[in-house]
Q: What sequence folds into this?
């Protein structure tokens, strides 16, 4: 169980996340939605402790995550894997090595620096790549892959951390619709293995289709927490200040895409 209690982050006079409290049972797939600047990315970064809270507590299975330091904090970041919109791959390295980077926190410092991976770890990496239909690209440089392929490599790397939770920060924001579906299918598959997934999303149809639960932030505050079916037109207007059709048009215009049809509720 992941428990978030009164989680707050201030940057000077600006409050990015304001008193958010959530309880997330193990194995849920949770979509986090809201306008740009609503605090979605800051919240995920606090859960991973890439950003420290100004106030509040994060607990996981009874452990106070906000109190962790040094090795205990590094261990938490291994169990709570992060996937970014920008992929964060080492472009000049081959795909297999990028995936094996997910094992570094589990290895002694010297072997980590020298990237001395075992045969078992290489087999794990190849199995992860095969799962995401990328085994044939194992020896290619990461820079030769498409955006969708690179994001799947990032998911495979996260899997090698053997995480309990995956946090995905706008993982499909820069992808076309086909690759977006492939990446979301990959995340849903990981979730079905019992791993809790929190994913920041702009596309409401995607959130409804893939997530068991949706939470929404507005100006850093939690304004919705419920099942996808409960995300009604009125709720969407409260979250975004516009109708779902207007929001879809604005989002599509921002990326030069055709808006997806909203799901009526």
A:
């Amino acid at each position: 169980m992941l428990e978030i209690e009164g989680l707050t982050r201030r940057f000077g006079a600006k409050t990015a996340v304001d008193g958010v409290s959530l309880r997330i049972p193990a194995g849920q797939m949770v979509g986090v939605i809201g306008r740009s600047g609503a605090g979605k990315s800051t919240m995920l970064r606090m859960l991973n402790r890439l950003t420290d809270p100004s106030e509040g507590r994060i607990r996981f299975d009874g452990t106070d995550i906000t109190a962790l330091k040094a090795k205990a904090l590094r261990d938490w970041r291994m169990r709570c894997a992060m996937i970014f919109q920008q992929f964060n791959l080492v472009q000049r390295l081959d795909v297999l090595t990028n995936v094996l980077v997910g094992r570094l926190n589990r290895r002694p410092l010297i072997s980590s620096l020298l990237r001395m991976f075992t045969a078992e770890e290489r087999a794990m990496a190849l199995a992860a790549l095969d799962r995401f239909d990328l085994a044939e690209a194992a020896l290619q440089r990461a820079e030769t892959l498409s955006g969708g392929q690179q994001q799947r490599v990032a998911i495979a790397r996260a899997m090698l951390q053997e995480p309990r939770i995956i946090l995905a920060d706008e993982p499909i924001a820069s992808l076309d619709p086909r690759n977006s579906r492939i990446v979301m299918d990959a995340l849903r598959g990981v979730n079905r293995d019992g791993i809790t997934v929190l994913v920041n999303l702009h596309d409401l149809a995607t959130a409804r289709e893939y997530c068991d639960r949706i939470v929404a932030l507005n100006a850093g505050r939690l304004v919705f927490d419920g099942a996808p079916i409960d995300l009604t037109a009125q709720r969407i207007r409260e979250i975004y200040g516009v109708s779902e059709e207007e929001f879809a048009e604005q989002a599509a215009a921002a990326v030069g895409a055709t808006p997806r049809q909203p799901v009526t509720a």
About this structure: Confidence is low (pLDDT under 50) at residues 109-113, 261-265.
